[in-house]
Amino acid sequence: QVQPVESGGGLVQAGDSLRLSCSASGRTFNSYTWGWFRQAPGKEREFVAAISWTWTADTTYSESVKGRFTISRDNVKNMVTLRMNSLKPEDTAVYYCAATLRRVMDAMTPKDYNYWGQGTQVTVSS
Predict the structure, then answer these.
(1) How many CB atoms lie within 10 A of CB 41?
(2) d(Cα 65, Cα 126) in Å, to the nearest integer?
(3) How confident is the model at residue 115 (pLDDT cuts 50, 70, 90)?
């Protein structure tokens, strides 16, 4: 069992960069696939990116962030990072970190994940 905790959100301007971090307690951090989701007001929670637990650290991204966002993990620090570049106003949302034992390619919807952080707000002004 793990407990994700997000940090790093804030208010930025369009075109800026921001880095979100997700730290997790628990000795089994390396066993999980880790994902980032976001939820804008009035919208459903949507998949952003995920990274596998394997040594290859396979990744997958939503089309809306591919090429702009990068997910990575540090198995020593028990941390997952989402680097967001070229931010757009439509990226404004609460961002959530989550963990699952599913394979990364089978973990792209909220129902695939068992453990969730409390979320961190990202606001991009135009």
Answers:
(1) 7
(2) 17
(3) very high
Segment 71-100 mean pLDDT = 96
Residue 53: predicted pLDDT = 86
> What distance, in Å, lies between the first and last C-alpha atoms of the chain?
40
Among left, alpha and beta (phi > 0; psi -120 to 50; other), residue 11 is: beta
Q: Identify the burial level of 39 via C-beta atoms within 10 angstroms of its C-beta, where 0-12 means exposed, 13-18 middle and 19 or more buried.
A: middle
Angle formed at CA 15 by CA 4 and CA 116, multiple of 5 degrees: 10
Residue 5: exposure state from Cβ atoms within 10 A (0-12, 13-18, ≥19): middle
Residue type, 113: Y
Backbone angles phi, psi at 64, to 5 degrees: -70, -20
